[in-house]
Structure formats: structure tokens, C-alpha cells
Amino acid sequence: MKNIFYLLLVCLSSCMQDVPVDKDNVYKTKNVIIVVMDGARYTETWGHAGKQYIPRMRELASEGIVCTSFYNEGLTSTVPGHTAMTTGIYQNINNAGQEIPSNASIFQQYLFQHKKSSTDAWVFASKDKLEVLSDCLDPAWAGKFRPKTDCGVNGNHTGYREDSVTFSHLIDTAKKYHPQIVLVNFKEPDMSGHANNWLGYVNQIKIIDEYIWKLWNFIESDDKYKGTTTLIVTNDHGRHSDGIDNGFVSHWGNCNGCRHIFFFGIGPDFKKNYEDNTYYSQIDIAPTIGKLMSFTIPDADGKVMETILK
User: Fold this and answer.
1) How many C-alpha atoms does 5 have within 13 Å on its Cβ side?
2) Domain range spanning residue 94?
3) CA–CA separation, 300 vs 281, rounded Å?
4) Within 10 A of 168 (CB to CB), how many other CB atoms are there?
5) Of 300, 304, 303, 233, nearest to 87 (Cα)?
6) Which residues pair with 263 in a beta bridge?
7) Which of 47, 33, 29, 112 is nearest to 297 (CA)?
8) What CATH number is given to the structural domain containing 159?
9) pTM given for the model
């Protein structure tokens, strides 16, 4: 039995070495940063008539794209949502950081296919449990080609930290290593929503919106990032619609408030000043990043978001 398992691993490793990299890639993107504004409803972000809680992204919209029909079609909670984004597969995964994804992530695929070092891919998260995104259960990938992580107080099961700390760590690391593929989780406005603090909830959307503005300004002022970096901003899930259960306080449901989320993108290969109503979902993020950065995600169920590309 052990010999059979060993032969299987050898076969899987051999298949991994044959993964093609698109050498004719015409895209300018060399770096991708995904920012997750945790638990914001569409109705308080891009679905709000005045966009009053996202003034900075509203200002950036003339340089980027907004997807108005973007959804979480899996479990509407933190770890499942992030897993869908980074693997291209919806998985019924534990939401408390007690289980790692089944499939290899964009970080692992990128590091392997482009022969990069671990410092070229990072996961930053205010929520400690998102450290699970750095590995997977697939025996051909488990423990291999893992990104660096900076999550919670000091890793998984050490507690959440403030978003200001996460933002500071992100910028410091970007200046030092200039990683090419990054995911950033901000715990707000999710935490204020769960606390039944409406004013705190909408104010935290404004605060994260400001971090996004500062991050883009950093990108545009940095010689190694300017002109070659794509920024994607989205949510892991929304919150209950008004009139459903306890409304904005909770999520993990099937209502439109939980499922309808936003996707905002800005970068050298996205259309400008463009609003797209094509239906897309979280599992489409990974293949789209793969397309831009010339690597494949063979197991992904999602599709490339072709209509938002130039």
C-alpha cells in the first residue's frame, strides 16, 4: 500500500512539472494585490446611490472597472469566501481556521510555475484564521511552494488584530520584498456589523476605503509597482438583507444581501471607467489572475473575467 501511495505522489509531481506557462502573455500585469473588505454589503458600497461610504473608490472608478453582478455562490462566511477566491473552487471548509483548503492556491501555483521564492507571495490578514490559505491538503502540493503569512496577532489561533496593524505590515513588507502576488484581509466592517453597531459598520467601510486609496497611491509612487500592478478589491461575503433574520448584524445565509458582493479592479489591463453587469462569482478571480500573470490553475471551476479586460 505504501508503495502504491509513493508511486501516486511521483506521478502527481511529474504532472505538476508539465504545467504550461503562457510565454506569449500580452498583459502588462506583473503584480496582483487582492484586498478583501470583510463582510460589507453591496447596498452600502457600490450599490449605494451616492457611494457615500466609499468616496475614495468612487474617485478611482474613472480609472478602473466595477462589476455590478458579482456573487458569492458558496458558503457566505470568511474562510470559505477567501478559499473560493484563491483556489477557484467553492469548498465547504471549516470557518474557524481548523481546516486547510483541499486544492492548491494561486500562491502555490504562481510560486511553482514561475520558480519564485516564498517572499514573492504573501497573505496578510487581520483575522488569524486566514493563515490556512497558505497550504492545502492535496498531497502533491501540501507543504510546498507556500506563501509567507502575516496573520492575526501571531498566526492562526492567536487572535485578531487591528486593521491599522495589517495595513502597516503590508506597506512595510511591500517596500522590503515587493511581492508579486498578495492577498490582504481587513476584518472590518464585519466586526462592527456583528457588534450590531450600524454607525461603526458604515464608518469602518470608509476607513477601509481610505486604506485602499493609500495603497493605490503607494503602488503608483513605487518604481517596482507603478504601471505593472493590478489591484482587486472585493468581499468574502455580504450580510443579511434588511428584514432577513437580524439584518446587517449577521450573515451565512442565502439571501441577496449575503451573496451579492462587489468587485472593483484597477490596473494596466483592466478597462477604464467601465461598469460591467456580466455575471461573475468569487471562483472567477483565480483564473483571471492566472491569465494576467501567465500561470494556470488546472483544477479551478471558475472562468476568466474576459469582459473586464482590455
Assistant:
1) 4
2) 2-308
3) 13
4) 11
5) 300
6) 67, 234
7) 112
8) 3.40.720.10
9) 0.93
How many folded domains does the chain comprise?
1
Digitized pLDDT (tens) for each residue of the chain, 310 residues in all = 433 433 344 344 444 444 445 556 799 999 999 999 999 999 999 999 999 999 999 999 999 999 999 999 999 999 999 999 999 999 999 999 999 999 999 999 999 999 999 999 999 999 999 999 999 999 999 999 999 999 999 999 999 999 999 999 999 999 999 999 999 999 999 999 999 999 999 999 999 999 999 999 999 999 999 999 999 999 999 999 999 999 999 999 999 999 999 999 999 999 999 999 999 999 999 999 999 999 999 999 999 999 999 9
Rounded to whole angstroms, the Cα distance separating 236 from 101 reads 15
Residue count of the chain: 310
Distance of alpha carbon 258 from its chain centroid, rounded?
Answer: 17
Contact between residue 68 and residue 42 where contact means Cβ atoms under 8 Å apart:
no
